Amino acid sequence: MFKKILIANRGEIACRIIKTAKKMGIATVAVYSEADRGSQHVELADEAVLLGPAPSRESYLVADKIIAAAKSTGAEAIHPGYGFLSENESFARRVEEEGLVFIGPKHYSIAAMGDKIASKKLARDADVNTIPGWHEAIEEPDQAVEIARNLGYPVMIKASAGGGGKGLRVAYSDQETFEAFTSCRNEARASFGDDRVFVEKFVEEPRHIEIQVLGDAHGNVVYLNERECSIQRRHQKVIEEAPSPFIDEATRKAMGEQAVALAKAVKYQSAGTVEFVVGKDKSFYFLEMNTRLQVEHPVTECITGLDLVELMIRVAAGEPLPFTQADVKRNGWAIECRINAEDPFRNFLPSTGRLVQYLPPPVTMEAAHPMPEGGGVRVDTGVFEGGEIPMYYDSMIAKLIVHGRDRAEAIARMREALNGFVIRGISSNIMFQSALLAHQKFVAGDFNTGFIAEHYPNGFSSGQVQHEDPLFLIALAAFVRRKARERAIGISGQLDGHGAQNQPELVVIVLDREGNYQHHLVRIDDYDAVLAKADVWVEGRQYVIQSTTPLGETLGTGTCNGRPFTAQVERAKSTTGGASRGESPLAIRVTHNGVQIEAIVMRPRAAELFKKMPHKAPPDLSRFLLSPMPGLLVNVAVEVGQKVRAGERLAVIEAMKMENVLVASQDATVGEILAKTGETLAVDQPILQFA
Fold this sequence. Notes:
By secondary structure, the chain is of the alpha+beta class. It contains 17 helices and 39 strands. It is globular, with a radius of gyration of 27 Å.
C-alpha cells in the first residue's frame, strides 16, 4: 500500500480524499493556488505545495507543476478527484511515465471514454443502447443546423470533451442551434482545451440515471446500483438520490449489466460512472462514461456501505476487489443536495465573497466511516466560516447528504437539515433546495430532467413556495419579539411599578417582495420567562412555542405544539419591496422549510400609525445594463449608437467557469460603454447606458 499520496484537486473533494487516506494510514500532500492559500484542504493535509496564481489554467491544470510537487514530496501516487485533470488522458499517461501511480483508470480507458464521439462507437460495439445522432466532430454552425434539421428538434449540442454541464445546450430551432454551437465551442475550448462538438437527438421527458461501476486490474468489474440525477438546472445536477424512485429491478439489472459490459470493453480499472438517459417507458440509452469519481458518489456509499475512495486507492495499488456482484447491498435511501454559492432570487447568478457565517447542521455520518444504524446527516465541504468563495472555481460550498430507511424518511431528514444550515455573507441555493424537496411532484417521484425548467420557467421566487402552516412563521416572529422585549425590560433597571409593560396584543406586519403589507393580529398569553414558553394565538389558532435558544443566535430550535422545529431567526438588515431601505430595529427575518418572511412586530397603535408612513420608490435603473454577478467581462458585443432589439446579445460575463450572456430586455439604443473588456466586475456595476 502507498505510504504517501498527492491530491491534485481542491475544495471538498480534496478534503474527502484526505479523510479516507488518514483512515488508511496514508500521508497526504495537498496542492493549492494563491487563491486557496488558507483553504481547508491545505490545513488538513500533512504537506502542501503552492502551484501558482489563482486561475486554474495557471495552477490546477498545469500537469508539470503537479507531477513536480509529487516528486519533490515523495508521493507515490496521485488522486485527481473530479474536474481539472481527472479525465485528462495525457496527464494520466504522464503520471505513469514518471514512475508514479494514477489513482484512477488507465490512460487508454480515459481516452476511449473521454472522447464522447469515440465512446458512442465503442458503446454500440459493446451492444450498449445509444441515442441517434451525428457522432462526428462538426466544424461549422451551419452544418450543425443542417444535422439538427435531419434529426428533428429538439437536439442536444455537446462538446466531445465536456462534463459538468459545460459545453452542452439543448436547441429547439435553427437559431438556437446556431447560437448553441458557438457557445458550446467557446465553453469547451476554455474549460477543456478541446472545442470539438457533436449533435444528437434529445429524448423528451428524459430521466438522467447513472450506474456506478468499479473495476480492478484482475478483470473484475461490478456495478454498485444506480443514482437518480434528473433534478438539474442548466444540465448541472442539483439533487441526486440512490436508488432511483423510477426504475424497477429488471431495468436496474439490464442497465447495470450494460454498464459492466462497456467497462470491460475498455479494460476499466477504478471507480467510474456510466450515464444513461431513460425514457418514460423505461427505455434507456448510453450518454457517456465519466472516468472518475463523481460529485454524487456519497449517496452510493450510503446505500452500499462502501468507501469508494478507499476502493479506488486499493485498486490502484493492485489489490483485487474484495467482493463480487452478489455481495453488493442496497440499504435504505440516500439524498444529496448540492449547496452552491448562487442567488436563486437573481436567476441563480454566481455569488462570491466571504463566508461571514457558516454553520452546517449537526453531522451524524462521516465520509470514510461505516454507516451508523438508521442513517443520518453528512456534510462534505472544503470551506469554513470566514473563508472566501473565489470567482475562479465552481460554485459548490458543500454537499449535504442524508440517509434514511426509505425515501420519505430521507426527504424529511433532508428538509430538517436544510433548515439548520446557516450561510451568511454570500447567497446560497438552500431555500431553493427546500422548495424542490417540498414540491408534490418531487415527493411523488414524478419528475424528469426538465423539472426545474417546467416548474420554475422564470426563475425562483419566494412566492412560489407555500409553507404548510404559514401562521407558524407569524407566531414565531411574535414569540421572538416578546422574548427580546422581556429581556430588555429585565435589564433596564426601571423602578418597580413604573417600568414598561408587555402587552398581550401585538401586530405582525409581513412585507412581501411586491412591497405589500399584511397585518396579522397576535395575542401572547402565559409567557414564562424561565421556560421561555408562551401560548401564541394567530387568527384563532394556538401555537404553544418553547425555545431556549439565546437571542442573537441565527439558528433557533424548540418545540411548537409539542413538535420539534429548527428555524433561522435574525434581525433583518433592511425592509423589502417598496419600502425605503435601511435597518429597522423591529424587523425580524424568519426562514423555515424554504419559506422566508420579513416581519415588523408592533403594538396595535403603532401598527395603525405605520400604515400612514410614506413609501420611497426605488431608483429607476432601466437605462443601465448592470452586472448581475461578480465576474470577468469577456466581451461587449455592441457599440455606442448601435440600435439593439429585445433578446439581442449585449455582453458576456465569465464567472465560476460558466459563460453568462446578457441580452437586451427591450429595444434600445446604446448611449455609452461604461466598462472595458477584461475588467473584473462587481455586482450591479454598470456595463453600459442606453440613450
